[in-house]
Amino acid sequence: MRTTALRLVAAASLALAVTACGGGGFEEKKDSGGPTSAEGKAELRVLIGSSGDAETNAVNAAVDAWEEESGNTAVVTNSADLTTDLSKTFASNDPYDVMYIDAGRFATYADTGALYPYGDDYENVDDIYQTLRDTFTYDGDFYCAPKDFSTLALVINDTMWAEAGLTEADYPKTWDDLAAVAGKLTKGDRPGLVTAPSRDRLGAFMLEAGGWIVNEDATEAIADSAENAEALGYVQELLNAGSLAFFADVDAGWGGEAFGKQSTAMTIEGNWVKGAMSADFPDVDYTVVELPEGPAGQGTMLFSTCWGVAAKSDAQEQAIDLIESLTSPEQQLANADAFGVMPALESVREDYAAKYPEDAAFIAGAEYGTGPVSLPDFEPVLADFDSELAGLAKGDPQAILDALNKNASAALSG
Fold it and tell me: What is the structure's pLDDT at 414?
């Protein structure tokens, strides 16, 4: 795993690269005239950051189908370092036309004018889950259509659950329930629950307590709230009781590995855990349930990547047409079959749930999930918060939150 220092350097480098380009390399956000259109047949360039061969092949097959139907062409490039390549392409005068944009970095690119906000021109906009539309909205504009999404849920080892005398009736519904079953599942040096010391995991507890890092319109830091302190205090209690540990404490690289190696009975992870379990730990039987409610109700983290269109592209109309093909209901269901992602369209939810009932807990999170904080120059703030969370067991939750609030306020004020 990368050290905190490396995360801070990487985040700072991204901010500097994007800021440097913003001085004259990016266009202002378009507000008139609609999308540009290529003369004659378009020749699009597409940049992706694929999860593996299955995703790459699925994207290429979908692009081939669009080429045949539209008469246009598109060349797909799979980047080994998408963040760096995006910074380079947005700084150039001839950028990729279409590209993957991660939810956590989306606002940085939107703020500098690197992206064309095509939400008003996207035919299936009303079919996208509202939580996902919110995730890719900046300064009032819906910028880009999500290709799929993920949420967090509680993953339970069936064998260990039964050995502890627990049944389906014991699946935790509240924080108290979670603390109780984590204690029962703790055996010797094996903690009942393992997860990551990051806002992308522990943030779910903050949401369940009614807190978060910024307010609803992302204009004010609210990290030092009593609700957030209650959430981190709850996690700290589990850590000190020995029923919760972070993955490094059990010699694992992430929660899914700890779970697969059976170094824990439960983990909090996203639906990507399915691929890891089937590929690396096929003999482990498990069940996935929604995260238990906190004092304020349900909460989970929501992760996604959208299809962005470059503000400098001279074929935005054709790019949007390609994206509509790549994100059609039929294609999103095909992608689910090909590489295990969840469709971002509500209209195919029932079809997906019928085919993959084991994902019910993950897809339920689309209704109440919250996307990552995506604001310009905010990544160093979040990286510092993660570094503090790693020491939560012996730390002061309120002091950690006070520092986060101070840093977040500074970032918001520019």
Answer: 79
Task: Name the residue type at position 205.
Answer: F
Domains along the chain? 31-150+303-370 (3.40.190.10), 151-301+375-412 (3.40.190.10)
What is the DSSP secondary-structure string of 346-390?
A: GGGHHHHHHH-GGGHHHHHGGGTEEPPP--TT-HHHHHHHHHHHT
8-67 confidence digits (pLDDT tens): 333 444 443 443 343 333 444 444 468 999 999 999 999 999 999 999 999 999 999 999
Closest CA to 288 of 168, 149, 180, 148: 168
3-class secondary structure, 338 = helix
CA distances from 133 to 35, 148, 173, 304 (A): 20, 12, 28, 11
| Pairing of the two strands 286-289 and 369-370 | unpaired
Residues 280 and 286 sit within 8 Å (Cβ to Cβ): no
User: What would the two tokens of residue 299 be?
Assistant: 């909460």
pLDDT of 144 strictly over 80: yes
Show the tokens assigned to 203. 């943030």
CA distances to 6, 106, 153, 205 from 210, rounded to whole Å, are 31, 25, 18, 9
Which stretch of DSSP H or E encloses residue 304? strand 300-309
In the three-class reduction of DSSP (H, G, I as helix; E, B as strand; rest coil), residue 72 is classed as coil
Cβ neighbours for 377, distance < 8 A, ≥ 6 positions apart: 15, 19, 108, 411, 414
Tell me 262's DSSP state.
T
SS3 56: helix
Query: Is the sign of the CA dihedral 323, 327, 331, 337 positive or negative?
Result: positive
Q: What backbone phi and psi angles, to 5 degrees, belong to 94?
A: -135, 70
Give the bridge partners for 286, in sequence order.
Answer: 157
> pLDDT (tens digit, 9 = 90+) per residue, 262-311?
999 999 999 999 999 999 999 999 999 999 999 999 999 999 999 999 99
Phi, psi of 176 (to 5 degrees): -60, -40
What is the Cα gyration radius of the chain? 22
Per residue in 344-376, pLDDT (tens digit) is 999 999 999 999 999 999 999 999 999 999 999
Rounded-to-integer distance, Cα 286 and Cα 214, Å: 35
Question: What per-residue confidence (pLDDT) applies to 324?
Answer: 98
Burial class (CB in 10 A: 0-12, 13-18, 19+), 81: exposed
Is there a contact between 219 and 412 (Cβ–Cβ < 8 Å)?
yes
